[in-house]
Input
Amino acid sequence: MMPTSSELIEVVVVSMRDAFLAVTVFVAAMILLFSWFQYITAGRFVDAIRSKRRWQPIIGAIMGITPGCGGAIVIMPMYTRGFVTYGTVVATLIATLGDAAFVLIGAALTDSSFIAPAIAVHVISFLVGISWGYLIDWLRVTPQQPLGRFFRYSESISPLENAKLDESGDAKTVFDELGREEEDGIGYFLLHQGYALWWVVTSLGLFFAIMLLVWSSQDPDFELSIEYNPLSLHGFITWIGLVGTTLSVVIYLSQKNWIRDDTEASIGDKLYSMRETLIHSASETAFVTFWVMAAYLIFEFSMLFSGSNEGDFAKYGDGLIAVVVASFVGLIPGCGPQIIAITAYTKDLISFPALAANAISQDGDALFPLLARHRLASIWATLHTTIPALIFGFALLMLDISF
Output
């Protein structure tokens, strides 16, 4: 039986409203917090990682585990300049969950049942990143020698790996290499002129999202109904969600970065200006909003047209195939597809082992700057992060570890 037009409209409205009120507003607050943290500490991390070579995989994993892609992106030009080891790159990429981390953390803020898996998957990614990074360096694995000491390793093969630290460089050298955005185009204008309005709507949305959590805790039967009268409370909240999501989609489309948000230029801007931090926090949140809304629409329309429910879909996400598929999704550069994978977990459509496999395998937006500077390294790095994803995903599945 084909769904009616009213059912189709309801799916779209609910998806837009919930994407904004259940995800966007909390993600915005977290992105702003972590972007500010990166703004004030990035220089210290860069200087520390260059001067403490034996600790580089650990510091790289710390840069990677920070939600978002900013910390991981900063590591990539450091590798191509010979400042860090290849194992540090792998540790960073394994540890990062990119912008998908905000979706999982946002789910934990609104539903306590996701707190344990959110912590667990970050801890697993962090520890696997460190251990695998050190293993890569110990085996002397490089892009030129992907099998390391097991296959004709030569000290002269990889000048990048044998390069000495450039003592004359500093954090600013790395930041300058990230570049800056071109101040032209309709996308630049919309973002830099419209970000203030977006933050006003998002602030209102955050207030009502918190109130919805309070009302739900006070009344277990409380549910936000669909009303279109903006003069009623439920209608006003619905319209905040619709307007907020619409503004987010406009900002997302204007940037023309379809599967990634953070670029080297945007990271460079954020690290030099607090105003740019506010602007690009709005852009990054808009990116997350678009992909979460896309995931909601895909899941809801799939169930609506098939006549199935979440339980029917979940049975396909709780096995060996799910771990393999989640790991292979992680091969795709950019955060967009990864956000859909993480959202699938928050919808109880895939298992925790599949979630962990995707978290380990994915590289977020950090693979793009590496691809531009060192194509061979980018190809091998994404493969070297998928191997532990399959190993640990299978291990979690065999041990029946779930949350």
